[in-house]
Amino acid sequence: MLPDTPVFERPSVEKELIERVLWIVTIRWITVAGICVTSFIACVALNIDLPITEILIIASCLLFFNVICIFYHRYIKCISYRQYINSHQRFAQIQITVDCIALVSLLHYTGGIESPVIFYFIFHVIIAAILLPRRSCYLQTALTLLLIIVISILEYVNIIPHVQIVELFPNTVYDNALYLLSTLFFCVTSLCVSAFLATTIVNHLKVREREIVVLRNNITDAYKKLETKEREKSEFTYKVTHELRAPLSAIQSLLKSIEEGYAGEISEKAKELIVRSEKRTRFLLTLVRDLLDLVTGKIGEPRGSNSQSVDINETVTGTLQLMQEHVKVKSLKLTVHATEKPLYLRINPDDLDIIMTNLIGNAIKYTLPGGTININNTITENQIKVVISDTGIGIPEDDTNKIFNEFYRSRNAKVLEQDGTGLGLTIVKELMRKYGGSIDVQSSVGKGTDVTLLFPINTQ
Amino acid sequence: MVNKKILIIDDDPDIVEAMRMPLEANAYDVIVVNCGRDGLREAKEEIPDLIILDVMMETDTEGFHVAYALRSEEPDSEYKSCSKIPILMITAISRQKGLNFSPEKDEAFLPVDAFIEKPIQPKELLNKVAEILANRG
Q1: Of A156, A326, A378, B8, which residue is most buried, by most CB within 10 angstroms?
Q2: Looking at this predicted complex, what is its ipTM?
């Protein structure tokens, strides 16, 4: 797709038109009410002798026409969307023509060229400019002017009877040629200028609107491309890391066999070097595993097909069982406060495993022998909260906002534990983000760390 | 007493070597093949006491297919004689490749007896092999 292809331009511009066509229907209700109220006030309060029957007939016709418009709109919408869109331009034309005829009739029954209704044609022209293309607006203006001129002349030459509103004009002026010409002149010029001004502004706005739509589409497009690139990058990292895994596994397996003497006796020095190599390889494998976890989280679809109902209490217990050896070696005091009922969460169980293994692993790793680890699972109305607290070495204040950065390890952590990839918390944060949850770390050096996990409860 | 016979089906010669050394040192006879097709053939001909099977070989799931073939319940299965041979599956793919393979969860669906993760730890391998063979008498 070309970068400047306006993908959604037509639909949104068309939608705009449909909205405006419906807007004019609303305006028409108001107009009908306005006609009725104004004539009522003129007749009753001001005692002006208007041809009220004719005026009400015109208002009723408009009312009836509006009802037809609404039904037509609904009917065409049901048939086909394409036709619905295509017919709207014509629909707008018809409505404006009908309005024009109604307004000219109203003009005639309220005194022809003498009627104050003549000012309202300006609104008519502005509405035409908003709804129709420039050319059609000018045509509508021309039609309106033609009808006004024809009516005035026909009244002037007495072909159709003039309606005299004596309360306004005790003496007739419609038959005054100069008055007729001057009023028509100002009427023609004001409507033409209105049409010109309104169409110019509306056209400017339409151009701007299209630009915005194109811009918006370009931004959406660029964002999608960026997402694709990011994904490709993660997938590449995934492949590279995955390829590293097999040879590293082989090296580690072979070194372990040599270390344990299956390849025959070796010197003490050689054995020591093998042990060191094996340890470094093991670290590389951990790094590879962490990197895989990290990019898998990035590639993974949110709420992927592998999500299932998992009991957090059970996962915590399972993780602790796998780590009980380390807990025992360090004589750590461990307490778990689980809820009575299972805490079900919709999550990929592997992801939850990774989160818990990393956090509980950290707590064990960075708590000195004899320390305490507390795990507290609670549930509120819409989220599950897991707090993992330890009485470990803590995180220096300067480091608390850096610990989620890739490969970052705080200084005191490096001192206590040489090995560590600095990816664990990054992975956890990425996974929490994937499930719409959050992680918060509160810590003070030498006193301990509280890690709070909040999972939204997904009711799906 | 006759040595127990173990068939290793794995295409990584280094992993094979890392397994063969401790196994042979513990008086097991080891037969090695490097693809699923040869593995099936050897299993039928040799009827080993245990098969150690890698998952990812030519394809990412070749090991699964071998396991299914050996355990096939079709009455006219070619490998009927192998259906009782215990299988120890080597895996490095838990968590990866979207297969979401985890021993606890998939054991029921996969017709294998135990799993061992790469990298191979000789002690763990020997323990598992001994355990499986003891269970089978």
Answers
A1: B8
A2: 0.85
A256 to chain B nearest CA, in Å? 7
Report yes or no on A49 lying in a domain. Answer: yes
Check A256 against B120: CB less than 8 A apart.
Answer: yes
Contacts of A285 in chain B (CB under 8 A): 119
Element (H, E) at A275: helix A268-299
- What pLDDT tens digit does each residue of chain A (460 aa) get? 344 444 444 556 667 777 888 889 999 999 999 999 999 999 898 888 889 999 999 999 999 999 998 888 888 777 777 777 777 778 888 999 999 999 999 999 998 998 989 999 999 999 999 888 899 999 999 999 999 999 999 999 989 999 888 888 888 888 889 999 999 999 999 999 999 999 999 999 989 988 998 999 999 999 999 999 988 988 888 888 888 988 999 999 999 999 999 988 999 999 999 999 999 999 999 889 888 888 877 766 544 557 788 899 999 998 898 888 889 999 999 999 988 888 888 888 888 988 999 999 999 999 999 999 999 999 988 899 999 999 999 999 888 889 999 889 988 888 888 878 899 999 999 889 888 899 999 999 999 999 999 999 865 4
A135 and A38 belong to one structural domain: yes
Sign of CA dihedral A137, A143, A146, A148: negative
Spell out the residues 6+ positions from residue A460 whose beta carbon is closer than 8 angstroms to its own.
A303, A346
Q: Does residue A245 lie within any of the structural domains?
A: no
Chain A CB contacts of B102 below 8 Å: 349-350
Among A196, A223, A250, give the residue marking a domain's end: A223
Assign residue A438 the CATH number of its domain.
3.30.565.10
Residues A120 and A213 in one domain: yes
Query: Chain A closest CA to B15's CA: distance in Å?
Result: 5
Residues of A in Cβ contact (< 8 Å) with B98: 306
Domain assignment of residue A214, given as a range: 9-223
Does residue A46 sit within a domain? yes
CA A310/CA B17 separation, integer angstroms: 40
The verdict on a CB contact (< 8 Å) between A262 and B92 is: no
**Smallest CA–CA distance from A295 into chain B, residue:** B96
Contact status, residue B18 vs residue B26, Cβ threshold 8 Å: no
Cβ contacts below 8 Å, chain A against chain B, sum to: 69
- CB-CB contact of B52 with B43 (8 Å): no
Look at residues A192, A223, A254 and tell me which one is the last residue of a structural domain: A223
Residue A377 pairs in a beta bridge with A386
CATH 1.20.120.1200 corresponds to the domain B4-135 = no
Looking from the CA of B61 toward its CB, the CA atoms found within 13 Å total 11
Q: Tell me: do A313 and A212 sit in the same domain.
A: no
Contact B25 A249 (CB under 8 A): no
Number of structural domains found in chain A: 2
